Amino acid sequence: MRSSASHSEAEERITIGAVKAQVLERAAPVGDRPLRLVEREPPEPAREEVRLRVHVCACCRTDLHIVTGELDLPKLPVVPGHQVVGTVDALGEGCTRLRAGERVGVCWLHWADGTCQYCRRGQENLCEHGTFTGWTADGGYAEAITVPEDFAIHLPEELDDLAASPLLCAGAVGYRALRRAEIEPGERVALMGFGSSAHLVMQLLRYWGCEVYVLTRGEGHRALARELGAAWVGAADELPPETCDRAVVFAPVGELVPVALRAIRPGGTVSLAGIHMSPLPVMDYGLLWRERSLRSVANVTRRDAEEFVALAVEANVRAEYEMYPLDAANDALAAIAGDSVQGTAILQIS
Ligand SMILES: [Zn+2]
Ligand SMILES: [Zn+2]
Question: How far is the CA of 57 from the centre of ligand 2 (A)?
């Protein structure tokens, strides 16, 4: 006999038909259209997981590194996508936090164990057993996704789906990179590369009264940087006209690291926002000398995502975006590879 609790859970489970998903079976150059659109059974939420009906999923440069195999691929086939906004449509057993019909976000950190040495220090981004959405767990380039309910991100009503989704990785990782760079209000900050992440956090920097110097290739990106209030905009390998306090390198280009170190003052900090970067060139110690710091940024915590979402509302951060249908996911990734997206590419799914 069923208990009443499991009976009510069963009632909240909505049966849905086959769902569409963009699946990576084998890594390939982006020009070879590595993702394949398939129809398959909807994923069923395991214990303490929920299933979302996906509304939108913003694309991230990391998705590109996944489909091309620049990152190891521990799970294949895999559905990419880790900036997901959707509505809860089924609850696994034991869920207590979320309800059916609630709109939530899913970010890169899919799950962390909560018990390892890093989780205990508040560094769940470094969890020894962490799983990652759209890489080691199926992501949001699909009509449905499952996620542990504790790792779903609450989204304020002020943000619609399109405004919210780019904040979940581009925004959250960019925000972590600002914190890792120890940026204080009013400081002079260099941003190297100006894609999805940089154009979001730049708006927060302006809100904090920072002077922002942007180094990027591509006239479209430069125009957007000027529009968002950059104090100066230059080419990728130029030096800003003023010495900066901090620099954040968004472009996955190792050659920019010595440029960033040259751009900052003694005691200043450079943080590297990308999960993947080409090899760093040999550098003179003089570039680090006088207590300049160089820091990487690994993944995100739930707190990064929640704080940035809240700050984005407060600072009125607006994501620039270009929309693609789910079946054009390969085109969206090709556009990111070609640096031709203004702001963020977003898959509109339902
Ligand atoms: Zn852990
Ligand atoms: Zn990402």
Answer: 11
